[in-house]
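User: What would this chain look like folded?
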Amino acid sequence: MSEHSAEKPEVLVVDDSKVIRLAARKMLGNDYVIHLAEDGLVGWEMLQNNSALSVVFTDLSMPNLNGMELLNNIRSSSDDQIASLPVIIMTGHDDTDSVKQEVFDAGATDFITKPFESIDLLSRAKAFARLSRKVVELEKKTGYDKLTGLHNANSLQEQGAKAFSFSSRHALNISAIHFEIKDFQDIFLNFGKNIAQHIIVAVGKRLQEVMREEDIAARIAVAKYALVLPMTNKHSAETVINRVRESIDRLVFDTGKDKIRVNFVAGYASLNHAEDYSFTDLMEQTDDALQQALNSTTQKVICFNEEGVVEEPVVEEPVAVVTEQDIEKAFSHILEGSFYQIPGYQLAAVMERLTPFIQYVKNQNKAEQADTLTKKDVAL
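Assistant: Here's the prediction, encoded as structure tokens.
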């Protein structure tokens, strides 16, 4: 993000014509921070790496990723902020009304015809940048993530700093945990936005179920969550992680064709009252540990220790709990002939329930066979 982004709205212009890109920069440069992309692919990468962008102007006909494809990527993004961005389509005289209608149906916010006047470009930039900024400011003021009901990143910083200050003032421990759904982008691409959002909401609910009243839970990125745990040392933080993992590992999302299990990784850090750190330091350490966990092929949970190096903690593997509802559903699958849908961790419990019945059937068969032999002996 540029130094001026806090003062000026940031606008992305995507066009394969250098003349158009430079003209847009000249027309808007005094009032906006302008980012230029020569095709939709470059523009899409910029959008994913810059959360400050408030308006997108894009051409339709471009190499690598055209304007329609870029628009589809934006509207189907798992990041709500990207998905809701105003997108202004820059059309040419050869673009027909049917093409414009198709783009409008796909989610275009407005159109501008090339060659455009500076007043046309400025008026649209001003109107939609102001609208985009108001939406962002409103979400920040509410303090909550609209999808999960957890705190948002802005609220986490505010509430977490207060909890940290209280811990420091009263010489209390405090811990923080970052969780992330690994390979979430693959889930989104393979199963679509509805399934992806369903997973995000379900994970958020599981976090709410295990947290205490004084804990602070937030969704801070598309598939990334945070917990701030006041009055919690390292050992207690590990206990919380075990509870969360146990709850999350029981989640199975059935799409009808496939079953999805969440690959959840975590990084955490704990500070005691004797340490001279800030809340920002704590969150940076927590995120460092999470990045290590994301890059690890063997560890799903990693702790950042007091010496500033990452260590791998001994974390108990969660024990899967099979409920009566699970058993009833498993029996339904058996009766329907879809026994292959029974999760592997439930098989032992199902067999334990079925064993008395199986033994009963065997005994009945033996009794019937013995009775049959007796009747044959009598007949002889």
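The chain is about 50% helix and 20% strand. If you want, I can go into more detail on any region.
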